[in-house]
Amino acid sequence: MPAVIEVRNLHKSYGDTVAVDDVSFTVQEGEIFGILGPNGAGKTTTVECVEGLRRPDRGEISVLGLDPQRDRAELTEALGVQLQDGALPDRLKVGEALALYSSFYRAPADWRALMDELGLASKSSTMYGKLSGGQKQRLSIALALIGNPRVAVLDELTTGLDPQARRDTWQLIEDVRSRGVTIVLVTHFMEEAERLCDRIAVIDTGRVVVVDTPAGLTERVQTEQRIRFQPSVPFDDALLTGLPDVTGVVHRGDVVVVTGNDNALNAVTSVLARNNIVAQRLRVEQASLEDAFVALTGRRPETEQHANQGRAARGQARTGRK
Amino acid sequence: MSVTTTAAPRATGSRSGLGRLAVTELRLFIRERVGPIWGVGLPLVLLVVFGSIPSFKEPQRDFGGATKLEIYVPVLIAFSIALLALSSLPTVLAGYREKGVLRRLRTTPVGPARLLTAQLVVNVAVTMVTVIALLVVARVAYGVALPKQPAGFVIGVLFAAADLQAVGLFVAATAGSGRTAQAVGTLLFFPMMFFAGLWIPIAQMPGPLRSISHGTPLGAAVQALLRASAGHWPNGWQLLVMAAYALVLGLAAAKLFRWE
Ligand SMILES: Nc1ncnc2c1ncn2[C@@H]1O[C@H](COP(=O)(O)OP(=O)(O)OP(=O)(O)O)[C@@H](O)[C@H]1O
Ligand SMILES: [Mg+2]
């Protein structure tokens, strides 16, 4: 597949602050490419250089074979952008904004359909200044897609959306991708990256730490399982510590926490069954993308709380390993 | 949710989007209320105030037999043009820049030229409405004659609008914040209005002041309008002064225009 976006040795400073310090990556046609990293890592600066809003100090960028600085007219037709901090005039109505922006493009999408899809139809005659944060965000997503772009760069796609709107937006993005639109997604949400992205670049202090698939990233952190349960009767730890797949057994009140490799769950449950011990409230925790993120950047994602809420909703837990 | 893959039929037929942009900006201008109240309302109120002063309606030898009110109609037109151009326009644009509206627009195929043109179109349209309102009220309520050289008058108004808008655009393009833009616009407004004869009619100014007035954007405008009111074409130099300001400052504004 041909590369849609190529960034080579990008460097950008603001005065003394080095925001981007040698970033390179390639985005293939039709993929959803995630950019993940802690606050101030240089994500927004990187994508704004790709959009042509900022002039890089050094390095080369090509988007659909175009130079973001030189070929602005062509680039803006083909590249949809959601800014982290864009805005519209307060007294502009939602419907007017969509109609106006669609008039800028040669072959725009149907703005009414887009308005429906983003759940804004009932807000058509509401002024921008009167929208809630999540509604503004949805309008901003609609405006990014209104020119029927071949590539969309979405900075903080679902920040500020409620869980339902977030899921709807993910669905929308998947639909957009299925039409062949290439998508670059800057995000803080592990669940979002895991669900949507084909590949993820982890950026920290202006450098790309790694580029890999979500599964590949989680595999990079040591694969260890934690098994947690309440035994129906007390038992001798030696029953489990003797198993080759088990690395540790810890008691926390009446809960037992067993750590081990991929096969540990199998081994533990069969030993317990043989000894007529029932494992109540059995839970298995696996290394998550968040663990990978923490391991790679040494930092928790900033929006951890929200991410965890989403995680809890999915019934997943994290190991909390450093 | 599903996504429509078909492109919508071109609703406006306007490929450039300039028409829709100008209409949208006009709506916003009206919704903001500040522009209509100051730029349109205030000159009309002043006209009514001046019109109710008896001495304003007596012919004056200084003005070649014209009444003070007749002299003030072009001054009020200049006043309205200046308010729109120096107060409303820079504030709107600098506000857009501050809020990130311009950043958002910059990611679309709309260039600065189209954006600035839309602003100009709106302001010229509003100027025309104000001019017509002032002329009609002055004629109907106070018997002030309509311009005796209508084509010359229209040309004068257009040149004046272009001239002042260029000053306003230059302020908007270079000022950092909406507040600075407003402050600079206001600072320019008063001396310009002075030289346009708001306080002392140009004809009554001492020689040196009158010469300066001839070279200012508004002074040249008022004199061109006065000539057209009296039935003459605007002077070449009056149009030249206005065209020079419009061209030089307009180009500088487009060149220096900052999105952020
Ligand atoms: N216009 C600017 N002027 C000066 N410094 C800036 C500017 N924009 C960004 N920076 C600095 O550059 C660094 C990278 O910022 P950037 O916005 O790219 O980070 P980010 O990864 O997008 O962060 P976040 O997750 O918070 O959005 C930060 O240290 C920031 O303070
Ligand atoms: Mg950012």
UniProtKB/TrEMBL annotation, chain A:
<keyword id="KW-0547">Nucleotide-binding</keyword>
<keyword id="KW-0046">Antibiotic resistance</keyword>
<protein>
    <submittedName>
        <fullName>Multidrug ABC transporter ATP-binding protein</fullName>
    </submittedName>
</protein>
<keyword id="KW-0067">ATP-binding</keyword>
<dbReference type="GO" id="GO:0046677">
    <property type="term" value="P:response to antibiotic"/>
</dbReference>
<feature type="region of interest" description="Disordered">
    <location>
        <begin position="300"/>
        <end position="322"/>
    </location>
</feature>
<dbReference type="InterPro" id="IPR003439">
    <property type="entry name" value="ABC_transporter-like_ATP-bd"/>
</dbReference>
<dbReference type="InterPro" id="IPR050763">
    <property type="entry name" value="ABC_transporter_ATP-binding"/>
</dbReference>
<feature type="domain" description="ABC transporter">
    <location>
        <begin position="5"/>
        <end position="230"/>
    </location>
</feature>
<keyword id="KW-1003">Cell membrane</keyword>
<dbReference type="Pfam" id="PF00005">
    <property type="entry name" value="ABC_tran"/>
</dbReference>
<keyword id="KW-0813">Transport</keyword>
<dbReference type="InterPro" id="IPR027417">
    <property type="entry name" value="P-loop_NTPase"/>
</dbReference>
<dbReference type="InterPro" id="IPR003593">
    <property type="entry name" value="AAA+_ATPase"/>
</dbReference>
<dbReference type="GO" id="GO:0005886">
    <property type="term" value="C:plasma membrane"/>
</dbReference>
<dbReference type="GO" id="GO:0016887">
    <property type="term" value="F:ATP hydrolysis activity"/>
</dbReference>
<dbReference type="InterPro" id="IPR017871">
    <property type="entry name" value="ABC_transporter-like_CS"/>
</dbReference>
<keyword id="KW-0472">Membrane</keyword>
<keyword id="KW-1278">Translocase</keyword>
<dbReference type="GO" id="GO:0005524">
    <property type="term" value="F:ATP binding"/>
</dbReference>
<feature type="compositionally biased region" description="Low complexity">
    <location>
        <begin position="306"/>
        <end position="322"/>
    </location>
</feature>
UniProtKB/TrEMBL annotation, chain B:
<keyword id="KW-1003">Cell membrane</keyword>
<dbReference type="GO" id="GO:0043190">
    <property type="term" value="C:ATP-binding cassette (ABC) transporter complex"/>
</dbReference>
<dbReference type="InterPro" id="IPR052902">
    <property type="entry name" value="ABC-2_transporter"/>
</dbReference>
<feature type="transmembrane region" description="Helical">
    <location>
        <begin position="71"/>
        <end position="94"/>
    </location>
</feature>
<feature type="transmembrane region" description="Helical">
    <location>
        <begin position="37"/>
        <end position="56"/>
    </location>
</feature>
<feature type="domain" description="ABC transmembrane type-2">
    <location>
        <begin position="34"/>
        <end position="260"/>
    </location>
</feature>
<dbReference type="InterPro" id="IPR000412">
    <property type="entry name" value="ABC_2_transport"/>
</dbReference>
<keyword id="KW-0813">Transport</keyword>
<dbReference type="InterPro" id="IPR047817">
    <property type="entry name" value="ABC2_TM_bact-type"/>
</dbReference>
<dbReference type="InterPro" id="IPR013525">
    <property type="entry name" value="ABC2_TM"/>
</dbReference>
<feature type="transmembrane region" description="Helical">
    <location>
        <begin position="150"/>
        <end position="171"/>
    </location>
</feature>
<protein>
    <recommendedName>
        <fullName>Transport permease protein</fullName>
    </recommendedName>
</protein>
<dbReference type="Pfam" id="PF01061">
    <property type="entry name" value="ABC2_membrane"/>
</dbReference>
<comment type="similarity">
    <text>Belongs to the ABC-2 integral membrane protein family.</text>
</comment>
<dbReference type="GO" id="GO:0046677">
    <property type="term" value="P:response to antibiotic"/>
</dbReference>
<keyword id="KW-0046">Antibiotic resistance</keyword>
<keyword id="KW-1133">Transmembrane helix</keyword>
<dbReference type="GO" id="GO:0140359">
    <property type="term" value="F:ABC-type transporter activity"/>
</dbReference>
<feature type="transmembrane region" description="Helical">
    <location>
        <begin position="115"/>
        <end position="138"/>
    </location>
</feature>
<feature type="transmembrane region" description="Helical">
    <location>
        <begin position="236"/>
        <end position="257"/>
    </location>
</feature>
<feature type="transmembrane region" description="Helical">
    <location>
        <begin position="183"/>
        <end position="202"/>
    </location>
</feature>
<keyword id="KW-0812">Transmembrane</keyword>
